[in-house]
Amino acid sequence: MTVSARGKEQGFGVAAALRMLQTYAVAAMILVLVVLLSLSSDSFLTVQNLINILNQNTPLAIMAAAMTLVIICGGFDLSVAAIFAVASVTAAWLALNVHPYAGLMAAPLVGMLLGFVNGMTITTLNIHSFLATLATGLVYRGIAILITGGTLLPVRLADFTWLGRGRIGVVYYAVIVLVVFAVALTILLNRSTVGRKILAVGGNEEAAILSGIRTNRIKIVAFSINGFAAGLAAAIATSRISLGQATAGTGMELEAIAAVIIGGTSIYGGQGAVWRSVAGVFMLALINNGFNILNADPFYKDLTTGLIIVAAVGISAAGRRR
Q: What is the pTM of this model?
């Protein structure tokens, strides 16, 4: 074997290892965390604690699942937290003034409409999604304040709270919604024409255009789905706490993006998986839960989370260079 051939073989081996790491790193890290926390505390590996972790993080997991499509498509959405807030107060207002079911059904539709506006803004004005959604997020947060008048909207109606609090056995309805939504997005991404186009646009937009793909339409679809997810998450969260508020969802956009990146979706677009983003959410949740159970210094939690995000971005960048 020649030196050049040996070098190519080693290069392929490193590239394969990086792809394997990107694909299964989050699953391996979750397994390690579960083992460490189980050995460190008897109260961690209990049915009730695990159910609570799963249920509490369902809204964020739904948002991260949809954010995966946006990032694969080569974009970012910093407005999802504000969309979450608008959907939350809309659901509460309609529940109080029209009907509880009207509020629950309207939240994801309002979210999808605002996501559509994001997509239209980005494609029509040819503005980078980072800047466009930063601006629309400010507008949407203002709309949420206008709807509420700056007050809280408590909704203590059984027909409204069932979505966030109801369950079948030990499994909450919200968790079932998450599973169905994540499976649907996985099928959309991996088994549909739209999914293949999303991957193509994120991988190389110019090549996608030359292939006849209407890239602007695909971006609008991705952002609309992301808005729908934010509205769906808001319906669940608002139903759970029986309260609509304009400040709802603050910071969730960064948490969702962090979970997607930790899950191995490339920040450069073109590759990723919905299940890994959902796993990224629960890995962050395990870190938070573990530090709370162990009563550890919150500084170390933030430090650990930050180092994990940096490592995930580094792996993504290394895979791109290869």
A: 0.90
